[in-house]
Amino acid sequence: MEDFVYAETDPAELARYREEVEAWMGENMPRSDPANPWHAIQDDDDRSTRNRELQRRLYDGGYAAVCYPKEYGGQSLTVAHQKIVDEASMDFDMPILFSVPTLSICGPTILEFGTEEQKQRYIPAWIRGDELWVQFMSEPSGGSDMAGALTRADRDGDAFIINGSKIWSTFAQRSDYALMLARTNWEVPKHRGLTMFIVPIHHPDIEIHTIKMADRTEEFCQEFFNDVIIPAENVLGDVDDGWTVASRLLFHERAAVGNASPYTQGRYRSRSAGGVRDLAAIALDRRGAEAGRHRQGLGHVETLVRVEELLSDRVVKGIEGGFLPAPAGSLVRLFHGLARNERHTVGLDVQGDSALVWNQGEPTGAFGMEYVQRQQGCIGGGTTEMARNIISERVLGMPREPAADRDLPFNQVPRSG
Question: CB 3.0 to 4.6 Å from 394: which of 54, 90, 303, 327, for a disulfide?
Answer without folding.
Answer: 327
